[in-house]
Amino acid sequence: MEIKITLPLTDEILHKLKMGDKVLLSGTIYTARDAAHKRFLEDNKNEVKLPFNPKNQIIYYVGPSPTKPGDVIGSSGPTTSYRMDSFACEFMQMGLKGMIGKGPRNSEVKECIKKFGAVYFVAIGGAAVVISESIVKSEIIAYEDLQSEAVRKLEVKDFPCYVAIDTEGNDIFDR
Amino acid sequence: MREIDVKIVKEAVKRLFLKANFYLDNKVKDKIKESLKKERSQLAKDILRTILKNAELAKNKMKPICQDTGSALVFMEIGQDIHFTNGFVKDAVNDGMREAYFEGYLRKSIVQDPVFERKNTMDNSPAIIYEKIVPGDKLKIIVAPKGGGAENMGEVRMLKPADGLEGVKQFILERIKKSSGNPCPPIIVGVGIGGNFDYSAYLSKIALLRPIDEFNENPKWAKFEKEMLIEINKLDVGPQGLGGKTTALKVAVETYPCHIASLPVAINLQCHAHRHAEEII
Prior knowledge:
The structure holds 2 protein chains of 2 kinds.
Chain A: E1 2-6, H1 11-16, E2 22-31, H2 34-45, E3 58-60, H3 85-93, E4 98-101, H4 107-116, E5 119-122, H5 128-132, E6 135-142, E7 151-165
Helix pairs in contact in A: 3-4
Chain B: E1 2-5, H1 6-22, H2 26-38, H3 42-61, E2 71-79, E3 82-85, H4 89-103, E4 128-134, E5 139-146, H5 148-151, E6 155-159, H6 164-179, E7 187-195, H7 197-207, H8 219-232, E8 248-258, E9 263-270, E10 277-280
Parallel strand pairs in B: 1-3, 2-4, 7-8
Antiparallel strand pairs in B: 2-5, 5-10, 6-9, 7-9
Helix pairs in contact in B: 1-4, 2-3
């Protein structure tokens, strides 16, 4: 069954989501990969203005290919999530409620997901064109020098992904 | 002796990188369709169908199959009777690659220093070029954009000769289980056995270039490839690591003689966006 969700995520929505559910997200999400995560947390430590407030938001781990003229965005599939494991808990402490990537997370991230009532979604790695079709607006809002790794604000309509780790810590990769 | 202007090489490399990034190999599509019939999990089926839909969209919209358009790998089999003219052939390869990555709106994913600044080279250079001298006067160029997610799951192990075939088998199964969804399964598994530490890694990469419907020429290794594919698909890693019968589409083994004290084994994984294209000049 497909569950349509209008963002931002609320506790009510989050607790209804169960491992293995297919969801279609609509609303605002933000992008960040390794380099942007690192810089974001450094900025936070140094009390520099942050690209966005993570409270109740979702971060999509993606570095899109360059945008062709006339397109909203280039191919935009997920990157591997474990590279962001060492940053994820700090973001959840700041209120982040969702992450979208691919592949399993470590036990520390899983604990934080449970503790903070967040959800880890996976999108299909390599389905980059299909996913880009669900992105209706894209804007670089910070760290432009990081190019494909810059922080983007995306408006999505029926962005396809699956619940991999739910708020109770049930993990689809535990098999 | 045959003269080849390096401009011809440049143009070929450019054409090949564009082709490899936009069009999914028909043989891979057929394998995925075949797997779709065997899958029972709705989630796995949904993923495989989406991968096929993605290939169609990429082709029609001329957008890269995957946003990670990879490190630019170029394999050149150079006939020993060839003389390259009008410049250095490796510069021509890099120029052709750069043009493809700019004109095709492909992602530039290479950083200059691997540890310190990690500053993007901005043009996806340098390509990683493998050259092999062969008899004759023909030039074969194979390009393979290789994504980071699958490449990161590779491993080399120096087994003991006593570990034998069972040791090789256990290593492969362990590596694939641990890799889970990270290399974007369904994957193609390249295995290099023998040579030495680094040559086994080279063999594992070369193995990925073999057409997906061909097996090792040695019947013993061909049998091993078929058996390993069955074993791997019993692991229940499945598409994207979310469970199912389709973990790998292909296992390809390449071997080379090795030292009496050694049994080097390397595993290189390739995601389902199995991108490669070739031309003979």
